[in-house]
Amino acid sequence: MSIRLIVTGGTFDKHYDELNGQLTFRDTHLPEILQAARMSEAIEVEINQLVDSLDMGPEDRQRVLESCRRAAEGRIIVTHGTDTMAETARVLGEAGLEKTVVLTGAMVPYAVQRSDAVFNFGFSVAAVQLLPAGVYVAMNGRVFPWDNVRKNKAEGQFERAGSDAANGAARSES
Amino acid sequence: MSIRLIVTGGTFDKHYDELNGQLTFRDTHLPEILQAARMSEAIEVEINQLVDSLDMGPEDRQRVLESCRRAAEGRIIVTHGTDTMAETARVLGEAGLEKTVVLTGAMVPYAVQRSDAVFNFGFSVAAVQLLPAGVYVAMNGRVFPWDNVRKNKAEGQFERAGSDAANGAARSES
Amino acid sequence: MSIRLIVTGGTFDKHYDELNGQLTFRDTHLPEILQAARMSEAIEVEINQLVDSLDMGPEDRQRVLESCRRAAEGRIIVTHGTDTMAETARVLGEAGLEKTVVLTGAMVPYAVQRSDAVFNFGFSVAAVQLLPAGVYVAMNGRVFPWDNVRKNKAEGQFERAGSDAANGAARSES
Amino acid sequence: MSIRLIVTGGTFDKHYDELNGQLTFRDTHLPEILQAARMSEAIEVEINQLVDSLDMGPEDRQRVLESCRRAAEGRIIVTHGTDTMAETARVLGEAGLEKTVVLTGAMVPYAVQRSDAVFNFGFSVAAVQLLPAGVYVAMNGRVFPWDNVRKNKAEGQFERAGSDAANGAARSES
Fold first, then answer.
1. Where are the alpha helices (DSSP H) in chain B?
2. Is A20 on the interface with C (CB under 8 A)?
3. Is the Cβ of B119 closer than 8 Å to some Cβ of chain A?
């Protein structure tokens, strides 16, 4: 069951540029992450773009959609910035692909201490194999369908578009 | 959908003891991992034992089974040493629990560079939510049913008990 | 031979704020660094300020000078942003303190992969014990006197104010 | 002022072998450490041996001495296991070389969380440049002359051979 990994950048892959002191993009960290992961599943890495998702325009989301369409694999992970992940999920979801597409990302860059990047990536590798065809956002240890997800920017967490705000109990420890 | 996390130690949680230069157990790293993971799902951590799985006897596996039985949650992750993970999976599988139980672990300790621990844990958090009732081993980015899994010690990888040895192609990159 | 450590922030202590995606200050990482360092020398940590050194004004440098003056210890390390480290060194140097003061910092934050922070700090702990009274910048594995040092921003390296630019050979591998 | 770095292994360079679960040697991590350190000083790396210092015999210490003798550089750092570091220091010290030789190592491997390796290495790079000719052990943020140092194995710290045991106050925080 081979998987395609479409890389678009986002906080996940941000890199610290020591000359200007900014977080920017240079390359993807996914090959390094894959090596540590010791996966025996085949996985094909494709760098689609390396951008902050706040800078993505409609044509950038189309480019992600085209990669998903073109892919020989029926199982696709897209790494993506969190700020407009739900928007790209909507573009992919409305396209009605007969594939399982899981978007994931990170709130803290892989290259920074206490990042959520590797956890989220591992989560997505299971999710993409086990979910039926459809488009999903996988963040915060949860799977969200593309048409019912939003980022709560104040809390730095994803939630259902309708219900979670009124449903704080679901987020408390059992 | 709350999850119980039963910790048994294994390579995943090995700690370097600087006074004797040995890898040993002191505490679990799971709380630190959970904090970085930014999960919004409720997860209950239970330290069942902290041992090398080569040192586990039948009564130790029974203690894991008892924790699974007693758990209020229907979704359980067990962190476990890799050497006898398949054996414990068999004990849990034969007990016919009406729960989803996912065993995972690590080939390289969490506390060591280039560990697979966080990837495997993230993978398991998705798997335990998406798989039907049953007992599974989740390693190397794959899900194995408890009655068809073994560790290939020469390669340091899990494989199906019957077929994978003759099926090297499945492990090559696409 | 006890040492005072005066913390002023700088890239060394920058922290990734996951809610706004910016590198900012929250606290110093020095206690964590000291714990790993296993020092048996007594060291007193004082948080003087936590700022980007580009934002430091004359009164901020005076505050560093006052801390150096007030210190009971004759050996002082100042962690500082690299952009104006040479300027603060000049203020301290011209004050003619009868103490050994070593300024250090980092080009890559401690909290980011492949940081130079711990190396530079370890370097400074030796330098401050072995150098005679005076004010020094310790960066890139070298000691510079306060009146002959500048940051080469294009290369991200410190060099002598007069000679190094014309002296590339000194930086090549032997 | 160029420096030679003679690598002998020790805990500093121990590597986790995931197939047998043991800490062993495969290669040195010093090139990776040097890259992060951003040194502008020239430094020549020489792998002399990669061993646990408990396994070193007289001929192994002679090999270190021969490297020190042969070196064109007058400033030499030797990375070494802590258990017999004081013994090798004695062999080098009694040889009466007209060079500055600093032995250092680590209580926790570089590849393990919260290692002291990079701190100790940075400390040694300053010490080797600032100390007069002689042989020294640099550990725990202190410099010890070769003829007055021992490892206190119960505390996992180096101390003066004669006085420190009775001098606990020197190690307390000021």
1. 30-37, 58-70, 85-94, 117-130
2. no
3. yes
A158 contacts chain B (CB < 8 A): yes
Nearest CA in chain B to D153: B19
A49-103 confidence digits (pLDDT tens): 999 999 999 999 999 999 999 999 999 999 999 999 999 999 999 999 999 999 9
**Bridge partners of C47?**
C7
- Per the structure block, which two tokens stand in for C65? 């000078």
Does residue C131 belong to the interface with chain A, where contact is any CB pair within 8 Å? Answer: no
Residue of chain B with shortest Cα separation from A167: B40
Q: Distance between CA atoms of A17 and A23, rounded to whole angstroms?
A: 6
Cα angle D163, D166, D171 (rounded to 5 degrees) comes to 90
E strand or H helix at B143, and its extent? Answer: strand B142-145
Beta bridge mates, D78: D6, D103
- In which residue are the tokens 């959520």 written? A116
Cβ A91 vs Cβ A64: under 8 Å:
yes
Burial C138-167 (b: 16+ CB within 10 A, else e): bbbbbbbebeebbbeeeebbbbeeeebeee
Residue D3's H or E segment, with its range, is: strand D3-9
Residue with tokens 């009775």, as numbered in its chain: D166
For B113, the closest of D108, D111, D156 (CB atoms) is D111
CA distances from A7 to A42, A50, B112, B119 (A): 16, 7, 27, 17
Token pair belonging to A159: 């939630």
Residues of A in contact with C16 (CB under 8 A): 23, 108-109, 112
Q: Are the C-beta atoms of residues B1 and B75 closer than 8 Å to each other?
A: yes
Any bridge partners for residue D3, and if so which?
D43, D75
If DSSP codes are grouped into helix, strand and coil, which group holds residue A4? strand
Structure tokens belonging to residue A169: 């109990």
Chains that touch B (3 or more CB pairs under 8 A): A, D
Give residue-wise pLDDT tens across range A112-145: 999 999 999 999 999 999 999 999 999 999 999 9
Q: What is the rounded CA–CA span in Å between residue A12 and residue C7?
A: 30
CB A126 within 8 A of CB B143: yes
Interface ipTM above 0.90: yes
Would an 8 Å CB–CB cutoff place D156 in contact with chain B?
yes
- Give the closest-approach CA distance of C107 to chain A in angstroms: 6
CA distance B137 to B124: 9
Query: What is the CB neighbour count within 10 angstroms for residue D172?
Result: 9
Q: Answer yes or no: do B111 and D113 touch at CB < 8 A.
A: yes
B74 part of contact set with chain A, CB < 8 Å? no
Q: Using CA atoms, how far apart are residues A27 and D169, in angstroms rounded to an integer?
A: 51
Q: What percent of chain B has pLDDT over 90?
A: 91
By C-alpha distance, which of B104, B99, B95, B93 is closest to B145?
Answer: B93
Grouping H, G, I as helix, E, B as strand and the rest as coil, residue B90 is helix
> Considering chain B, what is the average pLDDT of its residues?
93
Tokens of A134: 């459809």
